[in-house]
Amino acid sequence: SGFISDLGFDMYHKILDEAVQELKETEFKDLFAKELTESHKHLVKDCNIETDLELIIPEDYVGNISERLSLYNTLDNLKKEEELHDFTNSLIDRFGKLPSTVHDLIETVKLRWQAEELGFEKLTIKNGKLKGYFMSSDREAYFKSEVFGGILAYVQTHPKRCRLKEYNEKLILTVDEVQSIDEAKSTLQTILDGSVVKV
Hints:
It is a single chain. By secondary structure, the chain is of the alpha+beta class. Helices cover about 50% and strands about 15% of the residues. The protein contains nine helices and five strands; from the N terminus they run αααβαααββααββα. A five-stranded mixed beta sheet has the order 1-2-3-5-4, covered by helices on one side. Helix 6 (about 100-120) runs parallel beside helix 9 (about 180-195). The chain is globular, with a radius of gyration of 19 Å.
């Protein structure tokens, strides 16, 4: 309990979840084979997104600072499309039409879900480039998966726009000409849908 107090319950829970998931994927992978093959979403529990785009709830939209912080916290903890839809409608009901920065902030939640499905631990959208940082290279099963195969196919069919490179033992996907959250979402959705021609 002292350890939990020092660390904080949320962080303790996150570390515990990651440890359990790692055991499922390594020492007990035969026992959890069905669970692991049903969904690759479990490979990445959380994707950190960094961007130079303005993603905020402006003061002139929600004046109370504690209210804004509460909304940020609620948004960060949403896990389902339906919850996000309800959150958006609630904002519109309470504060009026969404400013573009709030719209983009909400769409970033969907972008994060897409990135997690694709196996990215971190996503950056800066200077018109999208960069997806893959999970650690010790996840051998992921790099043999259909998901990663779809990413490779996308890179091969868009050689002028994107590339894969290794930097500091991390594999990074870079896609040029991504100027907005909507363009980033569209790019990741194309990969997820497998709508590119596989070669």
